[in-house]
Amino acid sequence: MTTATQDFLGTGRRKSSVARVRVRAGDGKVAINDRSLEAFFPNLQQQNAVMAPLEQTGVRERVDVLVRVDGGGITGQADACKLGIARALKRFDSELEHALRDSGLLTRDGRMKERKKYGLRGARRGTQFSKR
């Protein structure tokens, strides 16, 4: 009889992106939507953002990370993954919370797109003034 490894869950959000993260004891595999980190995020800056919680706590080689992310753009998805991984790591090992909080990895970025207002061309831009 085999024992199932325990999964630790975390949810990350950024703009309109949502990442559902599972962290389990393993050997350092990272899969995002059933693809490798490099295949899903080709940009090095986004790869570093996703890996920041693992690097900051030093558990990169001890855990496997499975992420389901959808909505928004590529940068919002990377930041949603970062927050979800940090929250899942906090559940995985409560000793890591202090390091994650000091790095600002457990803080949700609340900035959202401002809605368009009536009579304007965007959120704040008005129509072009014509003298004649």
Task: Describe the structure using short key phrases.
five-stranded mixed beta sheet, 33% helix, alpha+beta, Ribosomal Protein S5, domain 2
Q: Any overview of this molecule?
A:
The protein is an alpha+beta fold. The chain has a single domain (8-102), classed as Ribosomal Protein S5, domain 2, CATH 3.30.230. It is built from 4 helices and 5 strands. It has a 5-stranded mixed sheet with strand order 1-2-5-3-4. A hairpin with a 2-residue loop joins β1 (8-14) and β2 (17-25). The model has no long low-confidence stretch (mean pLDDT 93).
What is the secondary structure topology, with strand pairs?
Layout: E1 8-14, E2 17-25, E3 30-32, E4 35-36, H1 37-40, H2 44-57, E5 63-70, H3 74-92, H4 97-102
Parallel strand pairs: 3-5
Antiparallel strand pairs: 1-2, 2-5, 3-4
Give a summary of the structure in a few sentences.
The protein has 132 residues and is an alpha+beta fold. The protein is built from four helices and five strands, in the order ββββααβαα.
Question: Mean pLDDT, rounded to whole units?
Answer: 93
State the shape: elongated
Task: Give the beta-strand count.
Answer: 5
Low-confidence stretches: none
Sheet with most strands: strand arrangement:
1-2-5-3-4
Beta content: 15-25%
Oligomer: single chain
Number of domains: 1
Determine the structural class based on helices, strands and strand pairing.
Answer: alpha+beta
